[in-house]
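Hi L.,

You mentioned the student needs an example of a multi-chain input paired with its predicted structure. This one should do, with 361 residues in total across all chains.
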Amino acid sequence: MQRRRAGRAHHPVLPAAAVLTHLLLAAATVAGADEPGTPAILATVCGARQTPDPEGFDVSFVTTLEMIYQNVTRSGYGAAGSGAGNDTVFGLGQCLAYLSPTDCQLCYAQSRVKLPHCLPADGGRIYLDGCFLRYGADNFTAVATDASDTAVCGSNATGGPPAPGFAAAAAALVRNVTAAASGARGYYYASSSPESGRAPRAYAAAQCWRSLNASACAACVASARDRVLRQCLPGAAEGYGLNAGCVVRYSTRPFYLPADAGGGGGSSTRHTVIIVIASVFSAVAVIGIAFVWTKMRSRRDHLHDDMDGSGEIIRAIAASHLSFKYQELRRATDEFNQINKLGQGGYGSVYKVHDPTPTPF
Ligand SMILES: *[C@@H]1O[C@H](CO)[C@@H](O)[C@H](O)[C@H]1NC(C)=O
Ligand SMILES: *[C@@H]1O[C@H](CO)[C@@H](O)[C@H](O)[C@H]1NC(C)=O
Ligand SMILES: *[C@@H]1O[C@H](CO)[C@@H](O)[C@H](O)[C@H]1NC(C)=O
Ligand SMILES: *[C@@H]1O[C@H](CO)[C@@H](O)[C@H](O)[C@H]1NC(C)=O
Ligand SMILES: *[C@@H]1O[C@H](CO)[C@@H](O)[C@H](O)[C@H]1NC(C)=O
Ligand SMILES: *[C@@H]1O[C@H](CO)[C@@H](O)[C@H](O)[C@H]1NC(C)=O
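Structure written out for the whole complex:
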C-alpha cells in the first residue's frame, strides 16, 4: 500500500518491540552444555535459501512451533503446518522414546529456542541429545533421508579409546537395533550387547519419526547405520547417525535407561528445570502474542502494513544465543510484569503488549 507513514514514532509496534528485544537480550546468556540439565546440541543444519517474505514467514514459524508444542510434550511427536503461499511453514518435533515427559519438554523447549538461529532461511533442523525439531517451507514429513544427513562421533567420558572388543560388540548391536526399529512400537528400539568377559557392554537405540511409514523407516535407519559404522567405528566410544527421518545412536553408557541408577538430576534440579521450561514458554508466548497482535493490527489498520517491529523481535532471538539462566529470566519477566500482566495461560504467564500510541485517525 502506498499510504506508508514516514514517522517511525507513529509505528505502534516499535516501542513494544524495543521493550521485548531489550528484555530478551538482557535475559540471554551464552550457555552451553556446561549448564546442568541442558541437552547438548549434536547438529544444526540451516537451509541455504532465504524466504522471500521473512516477516510473514516468522509469524507462521512461531504459529507452527506453537501448534506442535502440545503434541510433542504429551506424546513425544508432533507435526503441523500453518500459513499460505510464501509464508507456509511446516514443522515436526520428535523426542526419542527413552526421554521422560519432563526431559522431553526440556529438550523441546531448548530446541525451540535454538532453531530460530536458522531464520530467515526457509528451512532448518536441530538435533539435540534426545530430541529433534525441524521447520521448512515444504511438507518434508515423509522424507527419510536427504543430502543433509550426517554422523557425529564422540569419545568416551574419560577421553580414551574404547576398550578392546567394544567396536565389534557395538557394530553387531547397531545392526540389531536398526533391523528391529521399523517393526517396533513407536519405531523405537533400544538394546545392549550381551555380557561378555572379553568386551565391555555396548548400548544402542534407533528411532524413526512417527510421520514415516515402516518401509521409509527401515530405509532411514539402514542409511544411518551404515554412516555410523563407516564413520564412528571402530575408534569412537559414542556415535550418532542423524538423518532427515531418524536417529541411530550407540554408546559405552546406558543412555536410554532411567537416570536414577546413574545418579541423574536431583529433585531440586528437576524443579528448577520445570520452572525454566515455564519461563521459556512464557517468553515464547509473549513473542507469539506480539506477533498475532501485530498481524491483527496490521490487518485492521493498513497504515501499519510494515512489520519491522515483529521482525526485530525474532531477529533478536536469532542473533542471540538464547539460553536462559533462571535468575536472569525471572529478572526479565519481573520487569515485564510491571508493564502489563494479563493472567496465567497454559504455557505460563501471558502478558499484554502495551500500545502507547493512541489511534489518531
Ligand atoms: C513468492 O515469492 C516469490 C519470489 O520472491 C515471488 O515471485 C512470488 O510472487 C511470491 N508468491 C506469493 C504468492 O506471494
Ligand atoms: C495432536 O494430536 C491429536 C491426537 O492425536 C491430533 O488429533 C492433532 O491433529 C495433533 N495436532 C498436531 C498439531 O499435531
Ligand atoms: C504433509 O504430508 C503428509 C503426507 O506425506 C500428510 O499426511 C500431512 O497431512 C501433510 N501435512 C500438512 C500439514 O499438510
Ligand atoms: C512409504 O512412504 C514413502 C515416502 O512417502 C512412499 O514413497 C512409499 O510409497 C510408502 N510406502 C508404503 C508401503 O506406503
Ligand atoms: C574409556 O577410556 C578409558 C581410558 O582409555 C578406557 O580405559 C576404558 O576402557 C574406556 N571405556 C570403554 C567402555 O570403552
Ligand atoms: C543380535 O541379535 C541376535 C539375534 O537376536 C542375538 O543372538 C545377538 O546376541 C544380538 N547381538 C547383539 C550384539 O546384541
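You could point out the following to them. Confidence is low (pLDDT under 50) at residues 1-34, 260-268, 299-311, 317-361. The pocket of 2-acetamido-2-deoxy-beta-D-glucopyranose (ligand 1) is lined by residues 52, 85-86 (CB under 6 Å).

Best wishes,
N.
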